[in-house]
């Protein structure tokens, strides 16, 4: 088993093979029946993947495993070449903070911070994130993202003064600052109408593609119960098919 010191020392993108690799993963809360039983889930570095799952299919639990908030009951959970099934909570926190971006369903902007401070927050909490930035100051990067997302005039405003669409753009900027290797989007369009939903997804994908063109292979894992979004992505996975928790131990998914 690798020590935490070894795990903490290997965050180089050049060593990463898969962004996410789950193999023979089981997760249960306490002594209950498993919520997840996943023989294999592999997401390659640089992919944009849409993961579909209806309510109750285990989406939130799976994202918590991938983000390192939870640890599997059994099996291998490897994220950005880090063995999350073996790593300490501190190591998982470090990888999540320095190498991942997250767009939450309700955006989770900090109400008493300005837009600028919200965007800066991941870099303030995890200085390692600065290593993955292009040349220039941190504040110049905030200005670049804000200009690209058309929120430059809002940087000194509080989130409560913004429209939903503007809050979404702030959430994208915060998630993308520092070029994370893995970007997770957790149902961020669930409260939007179809037009605004599609605009948001298109913008998110544009930003990820721009990062890739600048040499930063950001992997996007977009999770939703809305199959109408699937056409935007290069690959679609169904959690109901991947997760065999409802089947007997050792059972296989139906062909």
Automatic annotation (TrEMBL):
Domain of life: Bacteria
UniProt entry tagged with the keyword Transport: yes
InterPro entries to which the protein is assigned, alphabetical: AAA+_ATPase, ABC_transporter-like_ATP-bd, ABC_transporter-like_CS, ABC_transpr_LolD-like, MacB-like_ATP-bd, P-loop_NTPase
UniProt-listed Pfam families: ABC_tran (PF00005)
Domain ABC transporter as annotated: residue spans: 20-255
A GO molecular-function descriptor: ATP binding
Keyword annotations of the record: ATP-binding, Nucleotide-binding, Transport
PANTHER family: ATP-BINDING COMPONENT OF ABC TRANSPORTER-RELATED, IMPORT ATP-BINDING PROTEIN
Record protein name field: ABC transporter ATP-binding protein
Organism classification: Bacteria, Pseudomonadati, Acidobacteriota, Terriglobia, Terriglobales
